[in-house]
Amino acid sequence: MSQTLPKLSHHMVDDAQYNLLRAVGYLNAAERRDIIDACKFGDIAHIKDKRKSGEPYITHPIAVAEILAGFRLDRDTIIAAILHDTVEDTEVSDDQLEQRYGQVVAKLVDGVTKLKSSNHNKQQNKAATFHKILTATLADPRVLIIKLADRLHNMSTLDAVRPEKQRATAQETLDFYVPFARLMGLNDIADYIEVLCYRNLDSDMYNKLSDKLLQHGLGRNFQREAIYRYLTIVLNNLELGGHVKVLDNRVAIYRQFFRNRGEISALLRHYSFEIVLDNIEACDKLAYYLIKKYQIDDAHIGDNIRRPLPGGNQSLTLIYERDNDFVKVTILTTKMQQAARLGVIGAEHASDVSQSVIQASLRNMKDLIDEDNLDKNSPDFTAAVSTINELMDYLHSSKILCYSPQGRAYELPQGATALDFAYAVGPMVGNVAIGANVDGKHAKLGTVVTNGQLIEIEVDSNSEPKAEWLGFVVTNKAREQILRWFKDLSAADKQRHGKQALDRALKPYHKSLDDLTDNDWIQLLEWRGLLEKDALFEQISSGTLLPQLVVSRLFSDEMTNLHTQKNGNEMAQPQQLVANAAGVELDFANCCHPIYGDPIIGHLSRHGLVVHRHKCFSLDDIRKDNPYQIIQLRWRNDKAIQQSESGDYGGKIRFPAYLKLSIALSDEQISEVIYNLRQLNMGVETVDVRSSDTIIHIIVRSRNHLAQGIRELRSLLGFPNIIRLYQL
Per the CB 3.0–4.6 Å rule, which of 127, 332, 357, 658 could disulfide with 388? Predict the structure, then answer.
């Protein structure tokens, strides 16, 4: 083959071309000729360009194309990969690419080409580029896999750039590209990229774990072989046609270690296997056997065959303990395995339910972007920043999948309600919703739904949205649709709806509007800076003011100020920290100890509004009986808090936090811990050393401040497991 290929500008380029041509042997002769032509075209275009390492630049895009050839991708994708930097970095134009290689190649290259403007800052340029990649991916998912292969090759060759650049690139990749890839079902390539992110983020941590993996490599191999033989015997005994595959689970181990989710010694005893069988019945038979043998509880069984994961991946996953080892077995069919490799790109090979899940993710991302935001000729860089911030929140939120009676999947954030599901189906359903059936049982619209549930929304064509809904819906889509409906009403109708909403909010307290005194109204209007009741009712129906908070204000004023001094003078004043509860008596819950930056919700009690972490288990019973008493809250943004920290009440932004370290500290270590935490402006209240662990009570400003302290302690103490305790 090497004799027939044209000689290019450098022997390293010749080698790259040769390796690529060997990798694309699955394409026909005409397609391979086009790829040879693209290598020559790209070589000439990049002739003056060099990588940081000194290599000819074209070796990089050809290597990217070789990575994609491993997925057996088509001619257009391979050529677009070879030429993906030509429009951005050389004199080559979109038109030239289209004339020479076709419209598809030109569009793919355009999709991965960065947007840059000297009139905008680095953040705006980056957001505009992310927005463009997202939009292009939704039009053609091959854009994303080209970008991922590009990032994979770049991440593996970052040694030539400055350490701070390595870390910045790794963090950006981990924040945006990895979760985006997983949502699109591209888990294979995401795994490789994620490991490289950890290597470039913190080489000390990475090397410590890598050394441990090498030290225990022989023992781990021995254990893997033993478990592999056992699973193979099980297949034979059950007369199941299939095969067992040992999985490389290093990415899961690195992820758990970097995210502080386990000690090294325990993580080294984790093993993963994949068992590919002929059909779903065989998968169920094997799963039933293993569940019975190892008494696997529901928390360690994942039936993602019937209910696929976001990204569309289908499998049955079991986790069990065997001789102090933790074994993860992923059971799936050949078709599921093929679909899982390429996710959205291979969606046509996936099952109907898997395709429905992929479409649910695509719908959500399409809702996030406004196609007109980034007109190629005149992009709105400021709008892009806002959109990408929303996208980042979406990518990093925990997601659940719920299903309509017709079997269509809808992707929702964890904590979403039946009403959020109704609006995910569409505004014509949400606006007239009156109740729900969740897995066949009647439920209120404010009921929090969970993963895999079947939800049927009850509707009444004469029903209308209610202002109090704005207090408990979680999704932006639901909130925007409700606000849009109220916005179109006349002033009189807005006042009527606001008045009705306030009256309904009083009912759980066995009161009505008629029970409010003139003094109550005077206080409420003064609080809002208004002159008349109708203006307050309009604020309620416009979403500016929740009727639940009006009631909380009324009742907390009736109460004695038992809670005002509860946390002492050094604690944060909650009214100044919670953005949408100004002027309402509120307190931080002692059951979960929320701190600034935690996702939070409010519980409307007779003592005012109590702030909880959104996962606080003490609210489960309240949610079942009175879901409308739980409202969504948010903190003031970081910039405002940073200004406040150095301004009016800087020293008062203080929250208690409790850490459990997996080691018993020595006296010397205690001194080091206290010194290092105080260097980070953290207070240390108590250090309780027990037989095998240590509990530290500290005072911090925020969740980020706490994370900084945990990173410092892990590095200082040899990377023990450190967890935050929400209850003592």
Answer: 127
